[in-house]
């Protein structure tokens, strides 16, 4: 463990800035997707919601993630009622999303256009029992709404005080980069955060999205950080269990990676899940993972991962076992100056350059 967990400061009170903003958020974001009864067939039953929220806040946590569509609106209602009872709205950083339709047979109740964004925010504010949203995400890119319309609508909501910060989820890197550039030149609010699927068992965000986030100074707030429980050790060879509604199944590569995770977990006397989370915190410093919990015990286990430091050998084993093909152009020019073989071609072998910008 490190001083971070042994100090007088609660573990989640070691705040970090959200991207290129001054907003302070906890190093772990609490995912609230399972709060409610409408999606129990997918998410399972969650009965410790308030205890988990209270434990999170007691540990210094302030960053909650949800969406208007989660449990058909129940999630926002539960969080709104909890904040009202605790009287802690101002302390919390509330992140929610829009894009997915909430009304049937209405073509304008889905997508990223101005009508749906403004309508969704109005409804979310009512469910959350508040007059502003700290961080509003485009839930997914709809491939139809002009980027200028999205960013100008964000600008209007921020100017009206209904939203404080702009964010994107599940959107191609080129869209986010273009949106940020448009905002910069129009004097509109920039993109503060991005959500995407990222874990030790799925590192494909490293191809385009993570380099873009670094270049644009956008906070990385990934979901699916435990890989749907694929590396916990509960799934063994010979079993092919459906994982979360049959979204994915274990492959031989997953089992080989799980073997490495299990071995390192035994070395450090911690759980597989803690190793998976610690890998992300060590591999991508500054990342703010979203963690979902069914029990307070699970939350405490996740928090303890903040104090796990993996040595270079352990990181290498995990990185090698989880490596992905980066594809073109990265397999041709690398992802940085020092990786680019063309720079040092024929007579330039001795070129060195320190402090190269991330882009």
From TrEMBL:
It holds the Pfam family Aldo_ket_red. Gene3D superfamilies: NADP-dependent oxidoreductase domain (3.20.20.100). The lineage of its organism: Eukaryota, Rhodophyta, Bangiophyceae, Galdieriales, Galdieriaceae. This is NADP-dependent oxidoreductase domain-containing protein. GO terms for molecular function: oxidoreductase activity. InterPro entries: AKR_Detox_Biosynth, NAD(P)_OxRdtase_dom_sf, NADP_OxRdtase_dom. Keywords: NADP, Oxidoreductase. Residues 27-321 form the NADP-dependent oxidoreductase domain. GO terms for cellular component: cytosol. Belongs to the aldo/keto reductase family. Aldo/keto reductase 2 subfamily.
